[in-house]
Amino acid sequence: MKQEPERLDLPPGPEVYAAVAARRNQFDSLLWQVPALSLAGQAFLFSVALAPDARVLARIVACVLSLTITGLTLHLFARHRQGEITDAHWLETYEIERYGRGLAHGRTWQSNRNATNADAGWLTSWTRIGSFRLWSIGLSLFSVFSVVILVISIVAPRALQRSP
After folding, report:
1. Are 142 and 70 in contact (CB under 8 A)?
2. DSSP letters of the chain?
3. What is the model's pLDDT at position 2?
4. Which of 1, 2, 66, 81 is the most buried (most CB within 10 A)?
5. Calpha distance 74→4 (Å, rounded)
6. Cα torsion for 111, 117, 118, 123, to the nearest 10°?
7. Superkingdom of this entry's organism (predicted)?
8. In whole angstroms, what is the distance from residue 43 CA to residue 66 CA?
9. 120-139: per-residue pLDDT in tens?
């Protein structure tokens, strides 16, 4: 049986705010490390799956591992984002209660960021797309290509082999 934590009637002080802000930063750092590490693993698995001299079993194993890693990566990516957003909203609520408005976190900061011109040339229009959504789609493409390579490996394995 889960025991509920004891609740204190005192409002959180600056030290709690600092601790939550630090945790939010950690979630944000972890959030973007996950896809970067996954890309390295995916590159290795695709080099195995697409090697012209790879055996069919090696291709199948590499594709199944790629599918697994993609699923695990997307799950961890979403969980880190969930933690980061939870803390950002808590921090914004704290700022509103303490200072009368959100200053540096949550929806207030997000609106300010989105209203700022990135001054990135042709890439400026890309800033309208949420990074989490874009990276999730990009990571999901690994699953699509893994399935394609897996099917080819089973149905027409010679298509991926080096011609003599």
Report:
1. yes
2. ---PPPPPSSPP-HHHHHHHHHHHHHHHHHHHHHHHHHHHHHHHHHHHHT-TT--HHHHHHHHHHHHHHHHHHHHHHHHHHHHHHHHHHHHHHHHHHHHSS--SSHHHHHHHHHHS----GGGGGGGGS-HHHHHHHHHHHHHHHHHHHHHHHHH-GGGGSPP-
3. 63
4. 66
5. 30
6. 110
7. Bacteria
8. 9
9. 899 998 888 889 999 999 99
Domain limits, the chain: 14-112+127-160
Tokens of 59: 């291709």
Residue whose entry in the numeric block shows the structure tokens 């030290």: 15
Q: Residue written as tokens 């080099």? A: 47
Residue 151 and residue 60: Cα distance in Å, rounded?
Answer: 9
Unique residue bearing structure tokens 């394995």: 157
Is 128 strand, coil or helix?
Answer: helix
Q: Quick one: three-class SS letters along 1-40? A: CCCCCCCCCCCCCHHHHHHHHHHHHHHHHHHHHHHHHHHH
- Structure tokens given for 103: 């200053």
Question: Hunting for tokens 């930063």 — which residue is that?
Answer: 25
* pLDDT tens profile 35-79: 999 999 999 999 999 999 999 999 999 999 999 999 999 999 999
